[in-house]
Amino acid sequence: MHDLINRAIQSFVCATNGQACWLRVTEDARLGFREFEAMLIYDDDMTTRVLDALSGDLNRPKAEILEDLGTYLVSHPNMEGLRRLLRFGGVSYVEFLHSLDDLADRVRLAVSDLTLPALELRELSATEYQLCSFPGLPGYSSVMVGVLRAMADDYGALVILSHEGQQQDSDVISIMLVESAFAEGRHFDLGAHSR
Predict the structure, then answer these.
(1) CA gap 113, 28 in Å, rounded
(2) Element (H, E) at 165
(3) pLDDT band of 139, cuts 50, 70, 90
(4) What does the pLDDT read at residue 132?
(5) Dihedral sign, CA of 114, 117, 123, 127?
(6) Taking the C-alpha atoms of 56, 150, 42 and 114 in order, what is their torsion angle to the nearest 10 degrees?
(7) Where are the beta strands (DSSP E) in 53-157?
(8) Range from 104-108, 109-113, 155-159 that averages highest in pLDDT
(9) What residues contact 35, with CB distance under 8 A and at least 6 apart?
(10) How many CA atoms lie within 13 Å of 14's alpha carbon, on the beta-carbon side?
(11) Residues near 91 by beta carbon (within 8 Å), at least 6 away in sequence
């Protein structure tokens, strides 16, 4: 598993549940170390063990934790770079949804050795969509539910999300856009600021 994924999980746990929780998780997962190092690729089994240990420690289903991870990736100040990458998808939530088809390619431009599963948006109507997440990274669709929820808040849109589970060859997330301008979104400036 790519170090960025493991380090994001570590950052999420420390920011939301504290360093003590992270230390318990690393012990329960029998990692043999306390921090994931940058620039290293780890065995997928380590990530699975960390998520299983975290689920046990928090007494919460893994899917819920992964949704919270997705929300953290967009909304926490530590992750502003990822938020910016996602916001370049469009000026509205609908434009953002349509940009998800090329998210894996945009991520690969930023981090050439990070491969994310392909996503495909299906527009059922002007207010109903399905996001299909193809195999490649276990739990990715749960993370995407959190990302979609946080990005709706970021754009000020009101949406109803439902993780439909496996259908044919992909995981499906249903998205119902109730109102595209429900609230004022978070400020975003496409231009970079210099100090």
Answers:
(1) 29
(2) strand 158-167
(3) very high
(4) 96
(5) negative
(6) 160
(7) 119-123, 128-133
(8) 155-159
(9) 10
(10) 13
(11) none
Report whether pLDDT(117) > 50.
yes
Cβ atoms of 161 and 174 within 8 Å: the answer is yes
Q: What is the model's pLDDT at position 38? A: 80
Predicted local confidence at residue 25, as pLDDT: 98
Spatial distance between the Cα atoms of 119 and 169, rounded to a whole number of angstroms: 12
The continuous run of DSSP H or E covering 108 comes out as helix 103-110
- Helix (H) or strand (E) segment spanning residue 54: helix 44-58
What are 163's two structure tokens?
């993780």
Cα distances (angstroms) measured from residue 183 to each of 70, 92, 141, 155, 180: 21, 13, 26, 8, 9
pTM, rounded to two decimals: 0.88
Tokens matching residue 109:
């431009």
- Structure tokens, 85: 């990458």
Choose among 140, 81, 135, 132: nearest CA to 111.
81
What the block records as the tokens of 89 is: 């998808």
Q: Cβ of 177: how many Cβ atoms within 10 Å?
A: 20
Residue with tokens 């496409």: 190
| Whether residue 30 has pLDDT greater than 90 | yes
As a whole number, mean pLDDT of residues 12-17 equals: 97
- pLDDT, one tens digit per residue, over 76-109 is 988 888 888 888 888 899 999 999 999 898 888 8
